[in-house]
Write a structure and sequence with these properties.
single chain; 159 residues; alpha+beta; 5-stranded antiparallel β-sheet; 3 helices; elongated
Length: 159
């Protein structure tokens, strides 16, 4: 069996996935958790890694091909010269294996040690506490033999 890319209608990826799975078609719709700032608050949201696309695993002779275009949420099969473009198994396996590492790259985690590299606290080691809006962060520093909570620009933090 070979993998192919399908383009889904805007905001209907989950719907297309559900209907394709009802047709017993093997599907792959990679999603990652993304931090977004909405109204000054950081939120985590699950989003597709490839917006607008999902992958299906079919044989060229499979009768399900006739149903693909009429499946709810599916826009078209991605192809060239009126032929579906095949995607190698190794590419899909690489995407599956890379999903965790892509998700882990999203920002500094609370409790992580950081160093301040500019401003009045330059060179001081700190502990990251939380984000404070889009451009600032709250960190803990040891100052005058006491732990102090300080708000600093995100640009001044080095993990």
């Amino acid at each position: 069996m070979t993998w192919y890319a399908l383009q889904h209608k805007p905001a209907q990826g989950d719907r297309a996935l559900s209907h394709l799975q009802n047709l017993e078609i093997v599907c792959f719709y990679p999603k990652i958790t993304v931090e977004k700032i909405k109204a000054g608050k950081r939120t985590k949201k699950l989003e597709p890694l490839f917006p607008g696309y999902l992958f299906v695993n079919l044989e060229q002779t499979d009768p399900a091909w006739a149903k693909l275009r009429s499946t709810r949420g599916v826009l078209r099969v991605v192809g060239f010269a009126n032929k579906p473009a095949a995607i190698g198994d190794d590419v899909i396996q690489h995407i599956e294996q890379s999903l965790d590492s892509v998700a882990e790259q999203g920002g500094i985690k609370p409790g992580q040690a950081v160093q301040l590299n500019e401003g009045p606290f330059e060179g001081i080691n700190a502990i990251f506490q939380a984000y404070d809006g889009e451009a600032r962060a709250i960190v803990l520093i040891n100052f005058m033999q006491k732990r102090q909570e300080v708000k600093v620009p995100l640009s001044s933090i080095k993990a």
